[in-house]
Amino acid sequence: MESPKFIMVTCQVGAETAVKGEVARLWPGFRFSYSRPGFLTFKLPEGAPLAGDFKLRSVFARAHAFSLGKATGTDVDTMANEAWRIVGDRAVARIHAWSRDEAAPGHRGFEPSINGAALEAKEAIRRACPRPESLSPQDANPLSAAKRGEGVLDCVIVQPGQWWIGYHRARSAAARWPGGMMPLELPPDAVSRAWLKMEEALRWSRLPIPPAARVAEIGSAPGGASQALLARGFQVTGVDPAEMSPIVLGHSRFTHLRRRAVQVRRREFRKIRWLTADMNVAPNYTLDVIEGIVTHPEVRIRGLLLTLKLIEWDLAEQVPEYLARVRGWGYQLVRARQLQHNRQEICVAALRRVSWGTLGRGRGTARGATEGPSAPQGSPRPDNPDNPA
């Protein structure tokens, strides 16, 4: 079986230059080859085959796989047969099909997700499978995640009638979902789409936040992210000079400090162990505010979930510096990812003390990787086929 010669990547529309910059820094032997908005390919160096579970370690790449070839045409069944010819005799237990993004998240209501064209492509590929017994029984459910280590056939719909076919082995949390996208829907009572960002951040990071934990949220208004935190049973303190939604204000486990974070006395954080922040300011300003809290001698913040706004895309080049700064506060595990529901921003997860019991199967991964620590106690896990969380 011939070794793959290309890597294909999908990302947020607008993040292509950021991905290219990361690849040039992390993998200087890779050569940029082809791109469309939200989709890129890179030629691999000759004579240096990569492991089947290769991790790109990119913050801005939502999903990546070995690129094996293209299936083109107007008939999905014919294209599906071509997909299996391209994949050859590689061991496939799951089929992941998704379309590259049509727009940036939130633009005119667009949210990255598995659309109808992707579902049709997956079903056609399943029907054409020459070895159906090799597919996982859970693969029929588009809301189930691949199990760790399973081989995945990847089908990216770059444009109508053009599928890019690839292969990867599911290792990280993101690699277990088609296109790295979790199946989230905004609840009818959510006060803002910040619910999506927070819920995805919690599931991706898998921070071990225990039930009834005290969590502070910097930049909480109007309250969508607070709703996601409250739904998990946490005691939430929202810090924001703006008004909160009455729905959130009326919750028995929510406290509103209607002030800017720099105006809050540090003793207000003495009982807080988990801190989140989403402020509409430049990254270094956010980090200045958080540093003033977590480095105070009376404050013991165990874990962080920070949203850093990239006011200009050029700030993507400074992401390694931002992560190094967070590590400098004493956080042993620091990871970042541009979540599917992030806009021009990234999510940073940090944990102060790392242990075997804390990280579970996430232990030992490289700093900056996109896989997070263990799931919160009592929270749904992605490897449960009966629960898509």
Write the layout of secondary structure elements.
Layout: E1 6-11, H1 16-26, E2 31-36, E3 39-43, E4 61-72, H2 76-87, E5 94-99, H3 116-127, E6 151-159, E7 162-169, H4 194-205, E8 214-218, H5 224-230, E9 235-239, H6 246-249, E10 254-257, E11 274-278, H7 283-294, E12 303-309, H8 319-327, E13 333-337, E14 345-351, H9 356-359
Parallel strand pairs: 5-6, 8-9, 8-11, 9-10, 11-12
Antiparallel strand pairs: 1-3, 1-4, 2-3, 4-7, 6-7, 12-14, 13-14
Helix pairs in contact: 2-3, 4-5
Structure commentary:
The protein has 2 domains: 6-180, 2-Layer Sandwich (VC0802-like), CATH 3.30.2130; 194-362, Rossmann fold. The chain is 21% helix and 23% strand. The protein has helices spanning 16-26, 76-87, 116-127, 194-205, 224-230, 246-249, 283-294, 319-327, 356-359; strands at 6-11, 31-36, 39-43, 61-72, 94-99, 151-159, 162-169, 214-218, 235-239, 254-257, 274-278, 303-309, 333-337, 345-351. The chain has a 7-stranded mixed sheet. Strands 10-9-8-11-12-14-13 form a 7-stranded mixed sheet, with helices on both faces. Strand 13 (333-337) and strand 14 (345-351) form a beta hairpin. The radius of gyration is 21 Å and the shape is globular. It starts with 5 loop residues before the first strand and ends in a 30-residue tail after the last helix.
- Please trace the helix and strand order, writing H or E for each element: EHEEEHEHEEHEHEHEEHEHEEH
Number of strands: 14
Give the tally of structural domains: 2
Query: How much helix, percentage-wise, in residues?
Result: 10-25%
What best-fitting shape do the alpha-carbon axes yield? globular
Number of helices: 9
User: At the first level of CATH, what is the class of the largest domain?
Assistant: Alpha Beta
Tell me the CATH architecture of the largest domain: 2-Layer Sandwich
Structural class determined from secondary elements: alpha/beta
CATH topology of the largest domain: the name is VC0802-like
Radius of gyration: 21 Å
Q: In whole angstroms, how far apart are the ends?
A: 36 Å
Low-confidence stretches: 356-389
What's the arrangement of strands in the largest beta sheet? 2-3-1-4-7-6-5
Q: What does the largest sheet look like?
A: 7 strands, mixed
The share of residues in extended strands comes to 15-25%
Q: Averaging pLDDT over every residue, what do you get?
A: 89
